[in-house]
Design goal:
The relative contact order is 0.18. It is built from eight helices and eight strands.
């Protein structure tokens, strides 16, 4: 299965001070037929919300190497109950951003675009506030901060892998595929498999320990490759 980005209805030209508002009607239509990507922090929060380790959560609720939530047979999110989200307080970043799509350029600048509306959605878009106010209400900042840390690690992993063998275009494509949805994905997504179980279990501490462990792993690989 391919996991394309959600289609945009408009150009990615909105900024944090752009007029924007969204009133969710609670219809649950946005929770249908989506390939919801998650990262290590989101897997951790969702796992804890279900009383699971990240290892068990990734095996039970995800596919594509742990990077995408596995929908039910009818295409609905596994956490949709009626019209409500069972894990709303711990919902992934893309769910918090909806109906916006976010893009970050190589220099760190961010822009936003409107996603094409889901068929039958009763949510109402407007210009009663700003993008920044909407993001604040959705509680995105901790997710964006952690995502930036893992994005830097991801880029470093690609760089390290490219230097282990000749960096041909096909080799780079294979490395990226393995990290995105293949055999390497779950290996770096699974926090509980990396961090000792006798450590404090609050998400911020576990993320710090996980990032440190992955950094040490990359340092060791680089040391042996030189």
């Amino acid at each position: 299965m391919a996991y394309a980005r959600l289609p945009l209805e408009s150009e990615v030209s909105l900024r944090r001070d752009s007029p924007f508002s969204y009133d969710c009607a609670g219809c649950g239509r946005c929770c249908h037929d989506k390939g919801i990507r998650i990262g290590p922090y989101e897997a951790l929060r969702l796992a804890r919300a279900r009383g699971l380790s990240t290892t068990a959560f990734l095996a039970q609720f995800t596919e594509a190497g742990g990077t995408v939530l596995r929908n039910r047979a009818d295409g609905t999110c596994p956490f949709l109950a009626g019209h409500a989200c069972e894990v709303h307080a711990d919902r992934p970043l893309v769910c918090r951003l909806y109906p916006l799509g976010r893009q970050v350029d190589p220099d760190g600048g961010e822009t936003f675009g409107l996603l094409a509306p889901q068929n039958g959605s009763e949510g109402r878009r407007g210009e009663a506030g700003t993008v920044a106010e909407f993001l604040h209400r959705q509680g995105v900042e901790p997710f964006l901060a952690v995502a930036a840390r893992y994005a830097a690690l991801y880029d470093r992993m690609l760089d390290v892998l490219s230097r282990l063998e000749p960096a041909t275009p096909q080799r780079l494509a294979n490395d990226r595929s393995a990290l995105d949805t293949g055999e390497l994905a779950s290996a770096w997504l699974d926090i509980d498999a990396t961090v000792p179980t006798d450590t404090p279990q609050d998400p911020p501490t576990l993320v710090d320990l996980h990032v440190a462990a992955l950094t040490r792993w990359l340092d060791e690989i680089e040391a042996h490759a030189t």
